[in-house]
Amino acid sequence: MPTIKIGDKDCSFEGKKTILEVALDHNIDIPHYCYHPGLSIVASCRICLAEVAQPNPRNDNKLELIPKLVPTCQHLAVDGAEVLTESEKSLANRKAVMEYLLINHPLDCPVCDQAGECFLQDYSYKHGRGYSRFDENKVKNPKKDIGDHVLLYSDRCIMCTRCVRFTREVSGDGELGVNMRGNQAEIDVFPGRPLNNELSGNVVDICPVGALLDKDFLFEQRVWYLNSTPGIDGITASGDNIWVEHNEGRVYRIKPRENADVNQWWISDEIRYGWNFVHDPQRLDTPLWLEGHDQVECDWNHAYREVIDGIRSVTSAGKRLTAIISPMISCEDAYLMAKFARAIDPDALIVTGPTPIDGEDKEFAGGYKIYAEKAPNARGIRRVLEQLVGADQILDHTQLTALLNDRESGSEVGAVLITGNYPSPWITAALGEGVADRFVALIDTLPNRLTGKADVVLPAATWVEKAGTFENANGRLQAFEQAIQPIEFVRSEGQIALDLMAAAQIADPSRFDVNTVRDELGGVFTDNLHRATSEDVRVPDVQYVEI
Ligand code: SF4
Ligand code: FES
């Protein structure tokens, strides 16, 4: 296998790779700004330059020093080459580049959202001078609102052009460009064409400094207080790998988690900002039951008793329970909920909840795809329900709505157990009418047309408040971890199902454990499950001291 020496470390590589790529593969940090693995190479920032000696085929493959410093992000690794990243010349270049970049850069790290995850800050500590020799006035540029989600603080920009290349090569709309030349050069949008494409938030992630900022996150948190939990998109069928970043029980932002097989380095804005319903002040957070005509708050035990009594009074009258299993919930939650339904009523109808579809799938220039299917687990719930009751035993919600609204055949259904967990109100008028006059237990997160009418309402945890598995549009099963504790008194559907089984004396009380359910599902399920690896668990590289 070809090998190069970077510093004093031998680094093997396969295929065609640049020196910087080989270095990064071997956890060697050569400073870089304009290089990004998902974008074309422009070699414009010059911070990655190093001295390179490589075999010269015209001179018996003798090792010869290339007379000029070479951009390691652009120069291909050649077997036998030696890269002197820490030579006097390489270090002097880094220092000069840093001094040049900092000439006009404002000293506003204390109020900059990027502080703590800023390449300019990190490299300044490592390679900067520590003082400025620039006595002239710095160029000052106004802050600009350039799109629905993004602000531009252009005097922080170091002109790496990552953002420009992103809009040309990945999102494809090319809204960003470079205006003017030299120290007047400035990133901007074209007049009348704001940065409003569906992937716009990614430019904030790839900006190595704090020039592009996320309005949603602006001044919300210092990044070193955030914890990152590996998650999976809970809004669409993409299965995009994400970081859920949170502090003290509150989610502050969602970032893409690199996965070459799924979302590369990107996520869409609907995934990035779709979590806001988690902290919606309207969230259902306490169990409710219908006392006469009024829904009143109650404790969980009371709510469970009401559910069990309601279902049993229906089944003892010869009618059936129907359980609507939402594609917004995890495989484990779906499995336990259906298991409870079949345990309390062996004839229970098992129905898959509606899967919202919005337009058509959209593939971007860089290969990233936004899925029209706006539910994370339509395939996963079907998989586990089929395993539990068989494919021929499952109805979809349109069949159920027709059945409920059919006076004759619908009369056999006496109770409906509904799971939701959609990020916006979802119960259709037809479903609302269909369940009228039946016993209704609603397990959901946000108010909808049934919350004032259901016999019992049980508040459910959103996907960031629990662990589980989603199966994406391509049949890829992916595990996600619990990021924050459930708010107030909410519980996961899996825990609610276990509690209901205990309340009905079908099973002993138990705590929901995602691995126990996965073991129960076993076989194909666990064999094909993709989990976040230990490399995915981010360790902050900035240490801070509590004062
Ligand atoms: S705004 Fe950020 S990503 Fe864009 S050129 Fe400037 S530094 Fe680079
Ligand atoms: S990273 Fe190599 S020149 Fe910018």
Write the layout of secondary structure elements.
Blueprint: E1 3-6, E2 9-12, H1 19-25, E3 49-56, E4 62-65, E5 70-71, E6 82-84, H2 88-102, H3 119-127, E7 143-145, E8 150-153, H4 162-169, E9 176-179, E10 186-189, H5 202-206, E11 212-214, E12 227-232, E13 241-247, E14 250-256, H6 269-273, E15 288-291, E16 294-297, H7 300-315, E17 320-325, H8 331-344, E18 349-352, E19 362-363, E20 369-370, H9 378-389, E21 394-396, H10 397-404, E22 413-419, H11 429-435, E23 439-444, E24 456-459, E25 468-471, E26 477-480, H12 493-503, H13 514-521, H14 523-527, E27 529-530
Parallel strand pairs: 1-6, 17-18, 17-22, 18-21, 22-23, 23-24, 26-27
Antiparallel strand pairs: 1-2, 3-4, 3-5, 3-6, 7-8, 8-11, 9-10, 12-13, 13-14, 15-16, 15-24, 19-20, 25-26
Helix pairs in contact: 2-3, 8-9, 8-12, 10-11
Bound molecules: iron/sulfur cluster and FE2/S2 (inorganic) cluster.
Residues 157-163, 187, 206-209, 211-212 line the site of iron/sulfur cluster.
